[in-house]
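Q: What would this chain look like folded?
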Amino acid sequence: MKVDLHLHTCYSPDSNSSLEGIVKRCQKLGIDCVAVTDHNTIEGALRMKEIAPFPVIVGEEVMSSSGEIIGYFLKQSIPKGLPPSEVMARIKDQGGLVCPPHPFDGFGRYPLKTSDREILVSHIDIIEIFNARSIRGNFSAQARSYAEQHGFLCSAGSDSHSTREVGNAYVEMPAFDDSEGFKIALGKGQVFGRKNSVIDRVATGISTLPKRIRGHRHV
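A: My prediction, written as structure tokens:
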């Protein structure tokens, strides 16, 4: 399977990607599974799970009080602003998996603060080692080295905020049925990816500005 483990839909305030558009893009590229990781909500992920003709992992990119944390295999949304220890505990209470996204990319991003990451290292399951939205390549090298140092599973995702970016990064891995099977499969996976276009990133920022000003979660 080719699995894009980090993407955003129109249920995120900074994305206008329709669920149907994402499905079509995945089918065109041969992406077999996605993790929908909208900002501070699982509403879009749950809706995508209903309509997609392929497996969908319900995820959420939660803005904790100390940076962003992705939870995979969630059943309930986790509110933003909680301490990172509380966010991770709520992910685990749902049987979910904890993944700090873009852990070394502070260039216009909100990675989990280093001090909190180190304090909570035993609660982490996965490290995102390739994020197609990160501009500098050395962030990926740092993340891979950190994952190897601690024996973490490695993920990759397009971090797409437009349908054109979907599938720019993915993990090729065996099929799985649940979170435990996912961990086994991810351990056998290989990361592939290329950087998202800076032009697409700027265009998405401009196009979603009215929605972000209004405070709407989706359109």
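The first helix runs from residue 19 to 29.
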